[in-house]
Amino acid sequence: IQQVFKQLFYMINAVALNNLLLRKDVCSWSTGMQLRFNISQLEEWLRGKNLQQSGAAQTLEPLIQAAQLLQLKKKTSEDAEAICSLCTSLTTQQIVKILNLYTPVNEFEERVTVAFIRDIQMHLQERNDPPQLLLDFKHVFPVLFPFNPSSITMDSIHLPASLHLEFLNKV
Questions:
Q1: According to the model, what pLDDT value does residue 88 have?
Q2: Do 111 and 98 form a contact (C-beta atoms < 8 A)?
Q3: Using an 8 Å Cβ cutoff, are 72 and 27 in contact?
Q4: What is the 3-class SS of the chain, one letter each residue?
Q5: Contact call for residues 120 and 80 (beta carbons, < 8 A)
Q6: Taking the C-alpha atoms of 84, 90, 91 and 96 in order, what is their torsion angle to the nearest 10 degrees?
Q7: Can you give the residue ranges of every domain in the chain?
Q8: Whole-number pLDDT of residue 158
Q9: Nearest of 154, 80, 145 to residue 113 by alpha carbon
Q10: Per residue in 59-73, is it b (16+ CB within 10 Å) or e — as a string?
């Protein structure tokens, strides 16, 4: 069950983050607030179902950081440093793309300046990020089956001749 929810939450993260990276109309402060609220609801649901140890919440980390990025101030060099230290699960390309797509929805917000984006790129130039922008939402985590040893000893098992397993020998 834990593995299923980890996979499901990864797919939620990948699809939502990819939509954020591809749609200018959703890159705003208010969307960041809505995302963070929805993610906290998912995290609360995981706690309520006692699935905290499943790793499902950790798969949402890039989306959480993207939501926080949308909510942070984006003006000074200190803001750039804060963004760089906060957004460790996002690649440089993803951070820059979100900042380029950021669209103010009211008169109190301003567009992100090109100088600020260059400042971010300078801070993140040492990172060795993968070149891909979008997350692979078809990624599948390996399924692990726990080993449960049997209480039946192998020498007590009788194999019927009708199975034609003569090549098996008792040792």
A1: 96
A2: no
A3: no
A4: CHHHHHHHHHHHHHHHHHHHHHCHHHCCHHHHHHHHHHHHHHHHHHHHCCCHHHCHHHHCHHHHHHHHHHHCCCCCHHHHHHHHHHCCCCCHHHHHHHHHHCCCCCCCCCCCCHHHHHHHHHHCCCCCCCCCCCCCCCCCCCCCCCCCCCCCCHHHCCCCHHHCCCCCCCC
A5: yes
A6: -70
A7: 1-124
A8: 84
A9: 80
A10: bbebbbbbbbbbbee
The alpha carbon dihedral of 7, 141, 31, 47 has a sign of positive
Q: Report the amino acid identity of residue 11.
A: M
Per-residue pLDDT tens, the chain, 171 aa: give them: 999 999 999 999 999 999 999 999 999 999 999 999 999 999 999 999 999 999 999 999 999 999 999 999 999 999 999 999 999 999 999 999 999 999 998 888 889 999 999 999 999 999 999 988 999 999 999 999 989 998 888 778 888 889 998 888 766
Neighbours of 137 (CB within 10 A): 14
CA dist., res. 8 & res. 119, Å (int): 36
Among candidates 67, 60, 63, which has minimal Cα distance to 31? 67
